[in-house]
């Protein structure tokens, strides 16, 4: 129940490009072999900003899933699903809204930032204010322990931790908690009970985090504990109530340094992207027409790679040897820019080749994608309903 579980979501607001691949997807592909992973399409989150253009979302949902699969996200290792197909997220969002102070939402930095950045849109809506809380519901409903996100999302994870704490504080209290927790300790058996108590004391008296982690692993291994006792024992380690929702940790994805075609960061809003599965002719044309060091007017003019966006792509795609060749060739005018660009073109095409190939089977047979998502939604719903059962009970909503 409290073992490592990774969850992340992506909003379907545009087609994915190589920046997403280097920044996010490569990371997902690696993590799916190391952890239990859940990846989902955050279509409701997309609606908070794109409520007036739902057709954009609809189209991008399936394209995005194909992009994930193309990048190597593997449904045999990770659970892929669509947020709106797991309506329990909405229920948890609603229930959490009962205990969410308005001030907490108004103080989340992305709230004002995004309103200013997207000033052409009216984002003074209830839905947009609730964006981070919906994200908290996404995370807490799976009791995710790790959430891979970019730096901009870290405040949302912090917010989620505060909501979990507040929830446990309000609803984890029960009459006679201490006695019930002590009784649960005894059920561990005398050896483990002694160990649990020692570790708990070490954490509570000396703030020893290692002891806390050991105690948690000890509890993770206990198969026979009842649900309630497990929540009590987890809660008893750190405080005075049941731990119904667990606090996730942000797993910081380093900002992608993937440069775009103009040397700025690759981004749809700069119109400088190469999409994940862009066709070969278009990739070749885009790189061939990239701007280079403006000092190289004629082929015989020497250049400075530091002033050239192509050089940045060499940093991502080329070996030391090729980089050396390009640098010398540029500064001595012994190669032309088209020549210099060729290894980059080749490397991008090599990178994309398996992606295009993997995508093809899904484009040929879209039912495959629908089935993967249907499976994923079913798995996700099962996990979500376990948490919802506890949440409803804690909030006095299980009338039987
Ligand atoms: N807000 C995230 C973003 O814009 C997307 C997202 C929604 C998400 N729910 C999530 C990410 C839950 C991680 C976990 O990138
Ligand atoms: Fe840029 Fe290469 Fe041309 Fe130099 S030779 S300006 S690095 S493309």
Helical amount among residues, as a percent range? Answer: 55-70%
What's the helix-strand series? EHEHHEHHHHHEHHHHHEHHHHH
CATH class of the largest domain: Alpha Beta
CATH architecture of the largest domain, please? Answer: 3-Layer(aba) Sandwich
Shape: elongated
The low-confidence parts are none
Task: State mean pLDDT (0 to 100 scale).
Answer: 95
**Could you give the order of strands across the largest sheet?**
1-2-3
What structural category characterises the helix and strand content? mainly alpha
**Small-molecule binders:** tryptophan, iron/sulfur cluster
Total beta strand runs: 5
Assess the beta-strand content as a share of residues.
5-15%
- CATH domain topology of the largest domain: Rossmann fold
**Overall tally of domains:** 3
Rg, Cα atoms, Å = 25 Å
What kind of sheet is the major sheet?
Answer: 3 strands, parallel
Features:
400 residues; Rossmann fold; 18 helices; binds iron/sulfur cluster; 3-stranded parallel beta sheet; binds tryptophan; 5 strands
Helix/strand layout:
Blueprint: E1 5-10, H1 18-31, E2 36-41, H2 43-50, H3 54-71, E3 78-82, H4 88-97, H5 102-107, H6 109-117, H7 126-129, H8 131-140, E4 146-149, H9 154-171, H10 177-186, H11 190-206, H12 209-220, H13 227-238, E5 249-252, H14 280-288, H15 309-317, H16 320-331, H17 337-364, H18 366-394
Parallel strand pairs: 1-2, 2-3, 4-5
Helix pairs in contact: 2-3, 3-17, 4-8, 4-18, 8-9, 10-13, 11-12, 12-13, 14-17, 15-17, 17-18
How does this model look, in words?
The chain is 59% helix and 6% strand. The chain has a 3-stranded parallel β-sheet with strand order 1-2-3. A two-stranded parallel ribbon has the order 4-5. Strand 1, helix 1 and strand 2 form a beta-alpha-beta unit. Bound molecules: tryptophan and iron/sulfur cluster. Tryptophan binds next to strand 1, helix 8 and strand 4.
